[in-house]
Amino acid sequence: xxxxxxxxxxxxxxxxxxxxxxxxxxxxxxxxxxxxxxxxxxxxxxxxxxxxxxxxxxxxxxxxxxxxxxxxxxxxxxxxxxxxxxxxxxxxxxxxxxxxxxxxxxxxxxxxxxxxxxxxxxxxxxxxxxxxxxxxxxxxxxxxxxxxxxxxxxxxxxxxxxxxxxxxxxxxxxxxxxxxxxxxxxxxxxxxxxxxxxxxxxxxxxxxxxxxxxxxxxxxxxxxxxxxxxxxxxxxxxxxxxxxxxxxxxxxxxxxxxxxxxxxxxxxxxxxxxxxxxxxxxxxxxxxxxxxxxxxxxxxxxxxxxxxxxxxxxxxxxxxxxxxxxxxxxxxxxxxxxxxxxxxxxxxxxxxxxxxxxxxxxxxxxxxxxxxxxxxxxxxxxxxxxxxxxxxxxxxxxxxxxxxxxxxxxxxxxxxxxxxxxxxxxxxxxxxxxxxxxxxxxxxxxxxxxxxxxxxxxxxxx
Amino acid sequence: xxxxxxxxxxxxxxxxxxxxxxxxxxxxxxxxxxxxxxxxxxxxxxxxxxxxxxxxxxxxxxxxxxxxxxxxxxxxxxxxxxxxxxxxxxxxxxxxxxxxxxxxxxxxxxxxxxxxxxxxxxxxxxxxxxxxxxxxxxxxxxxxxxxxxxxxxxxxxxxxxxxxxxxxxxxxxxxxxxxxxxxxxxxxxxxxxxxxxxxxxxxxxxxxxxxxxxxxxxxxxxxxxxxxxxxxxxxxxxxxxxxxxxxxxxxxxxxxxxxxxxxxxxxxxxxxxxxxxxxxxxxxxxxxxxxxxxxxxxxxxxxxxxxxxxxxxxxxxxxxxxxxxxxxxxxxxxxxxxxxxxxxxxxxxxxxxxxxxxxxxxxxxxxxxxxxxxxxxxxxxxxxxxxxxxxxxxxxxxxxxxxxxxxxxxxxxxxxxxxxxxxxxxx
Lengths: 462, 427
Fold this sequence. Notes:
heterodimer; A: mainly alpha; MetI-like fold; two-stranded antiparallel ribbon; 16 helices; B: mainly alpha; 2 domains; 3-stranded antiparallel sheet; 17 helices; about 65% helix; about 5% strand; extended
């Protein structure tokens, strides 16, 4: 029985449980006129029956579907002849894949032999048994749960409290998903990174000056043992981030000041939403614009004045990234400026200083921590930005501070190492996770500090 | 202090006044320029996008009189839909129009004027109606992208022949066909009905749009219930303790984690550990739902906070339980705000591409996905793929795909804004 049919059946059982539970609650109370005799409203008795029927069986259903493929594969491997069972893990994987494909009726790589047909028949049989077992278990448990709930219904039964505590549990579970996500990120990145650092020493990775992640496929192949010195990636990331900040910070800050202090309300009402559009444009679109419009323009301009500019220069990616970050800087600066108490501003103006003097000598110094916190968040955003650099920055890991040359970044390398076919035992693939770990740790640090500064500062004047 | 010899404060101020006013003006000008830079960029950006992209919505079509000859399509008297020479009959009809192509090279160049899609069109026509066999039909077939580029004026005729994608002979034929009225521009339907293709004139965004749609369905189905539930718990039930603080800090940080890291999570956990098929909208949707979860939680919390406490107190005073207060009063009042947050979260998910690269959604996929586990790609990823193609014809299609993407985003954000305006309530 397919999982969808089973789900529909379970839903039907749940529906029946609700109505029967509700009815029994009415019956126990002695008719609709007497429901005040019940501790909980009849509906809650129905909901309680639903929960009893569905929760355990759904849990089993999900667990079963996750565990099933593993168990089936293990059982199939066990049933294979010895010759196949003693194969290398990678070949065995291939064989299992073929067996699966044959069982599912897909195209099989290589010839179909007796071993394959036998195994695929076996896996089909196993699958059918497993599904039948699953259906019986789930429906049995659902019916059992519903019966238990039905029998518990009485006048004094606190159905509402039971239902509410289950719902509270679900709410807590939902809010814990945020923590689970963080944990998942840390675990997945950390484990692969540790495997990488077993092959490549941490110091080589952090302080090595050469990055060429091509590892040899065969041991006797020429030339490429792969070197994983990530310093060129870090400098490249920093270079592009610096260019982006060089654009975003002054422009964003001055925009915030202009819109807060000088512009009329009409201009503000037009300009603010327009600038917010900049924040809503997908990064892949910025990347396209950087690669196909800005980069050629910069190269042509460079040729005109006699500077040789790489077609994938750091400048193009950095400039466009800077534009992308303007709205972030400007809105965070705006918050910081608005948080400065009006009395300070009025005091400075009252003493006869001009508006720019008030801004430069009173408001900005007072708002500085908040602005710096905002800039930290913007830096973290620039470091983690992927699509713009993938499309507009290069792949060659140059150790340079020249903005006209091509550099590569951490995110670009993660993408290049992981796009396409991968095997999870090569240093090349694992290197991406090591880079991911660095990226996560650095951006997390910036975010924690940035958020704390922004918030602390906001509270200070409240 | 001797008042007579020193300059009065007033004079001092007056002396510096001009300088101060000047610096005031410069400061103001800087602010104006900064604001203008952002808006100017926006204008240049949209102008260049539309200027490059609008031509992709039309496409050159070639009108051919195609003879569905029996000897070419059904050699043994039996129509073979798999292997019959459909391209052959198309070429034959083209040869009749342009009789001056005699040697092999010229013929090969001539054959390149018509898209390989023409052969498929003949096949589909005869599959639907076998009685066409033996007749001659006038058909409107897509021209090759070279012809399309020439017709749109994207190929510079003054360049020497070897630097152009179209040869002198091809240019002459194109002019000849245009004179005969055989070439015409029409709406590019392939762009909206086809999946991806190596041939620009056959490439469309339907597969990518469907992939994005399936992914968003998964993402909203996961992140909206979980996000609102988490927001309700944190706002209404959570005790003020370490655990709540931890969750709170976590959510704020997750919102700022680079999206590519979520892709690594998806690869390691969803694909390698749980075993969800690679490249499927299912795994993409899960990754995007984790990505949008913080956005939805933060927006939902703001919506719940906006419900005044007096409503809660009134309900509690009438004997409702805490859960009833939330379920019957707070939630219905906060729902529009939560929905707005969900739409904004989804529009962010729609534009996201970096994590999708990690989980195999960059494959070249021709078929339009028909379910949640079919291999698929997404609209922004399609933009990324096409942007990498060197052909001029793909550059204009990339811009067109971006215009479609931005149109979707615009609609979603406008919905959010209108929803917010309509239900905004002063308590």
